[in-house]
Amino acid sequence: MAETLTTTMGATDDVQLAPPSKVGDRIFKWLAMVMGLSVGALIVIVGFTLWRGASMSVHHFGTGFLTGSKWDPVQEVFGALPFIYGTLVSSLVALVIAVPLSIATAVFLTELAPPRVRQPLVSVIEMLSAVPSVVFGLWGIFVLISWLRVHLFPWLQKLFGFLPLFQGPNYGVSMLAAGIIIAIMILPIITSVSREILRSVPDLQREAAYGLGATRWEVTRIAVLSYAKRGLFGAVVLGLGRALGETMAVTMLIGNRPEISTSLLAPGYTLASVIANEFSEATTDLYLSALFEIALVLLGVTILTNILAQLLIASTAGPKTSRAIQ
Amino acid sequence: MNLTKKLGNLAVAAMMLGLATELSAQMLINGAGATFPYPIYSKWFDEYAKVDDSVRFNYQSIGSGGGQKQILAQTVDFGASDGPMSDENLAKASGKLLHIPTVAGAVVVTYNLPGDFKLKLDGPAIVDIFRGKITKWNDTRITGQNPGVELPGIDIVVVHRSDGSGTTYIFTDYLSAISHPWQAEAGKGTAVNWPVGLGGKGNEGVAGQVKQTPGAIGYVELIYALQNKLSFADIKNADGKYISPSLDSITAAMATAKVPDDFRFSMVNASGADAYPIAGTTWLLVYQTQKDPAKGKKIVEFLNWALTKGEAMAPSLDYAPLPKGLQDRTLARVKEITF
Question: Dihedrals φ, ψ of B88, to 5°?
Answer without folding.
Answer: -60, -45
